[in-house]
Design goal:
The protein is built from 4 helices and 2 strands. With 103 residues, it is mainly α. It has one domain: Response regulator (Rossmann fold, 3-Layer(aba) Sandwich), CATH 3.40.50. The longest helix is centred in the C-terminal third of the chain and has 24 residues.
Length: 103
């Protein structure tokens, strides 16, 4: 975790992104409104958590105890793994896209 540094997203970065991952529904609304990013390009990362499907928001661990950082990091890691699996599975030539083409 020590190698991670947060940074503020710019309007250009958000507008040019194919996918914008946010930590809460509030952030999703703000990105959509402030940066004019279409809603279908914004995903609340917590929606992809296989262990906590009903908990959308990922807690911001800033200025919290170490266990909150660890819990948030573990949650983000699970969700990012789900994003990677979805993106890799949707690529032409990937195993899951070949299975769906064969069906």
């Amino acid at each position: 975790m020590s190698g991670h540094r947060s940074r503020v997203v710019s309007a250009d970065t958000a507008r040019n992104a194919d996918l914008v991952l946010v930590m809460s529904a509030r952030q999703a609304r703000k990105v959509s409104r402030d940066f004019e990013v279409r809603g279908e390009r914004i995903v609340v990362l917590g929606d992809l958590d296989p262990e906590l499907p009903d908990a959308r928001e990922i807690v911001d661990p800033y200025d919290q105890r170490q266990h909150v950082y660890e819990w948030s990091f573990a949650r983000i890691e699970r969700c990012v793994d789900a994003v990677v699996d979805a993106l890799v599975g949707s690529r032409p030539g990937s195993e899951s896209s070949q299975h769906s083409a064969e069906a």
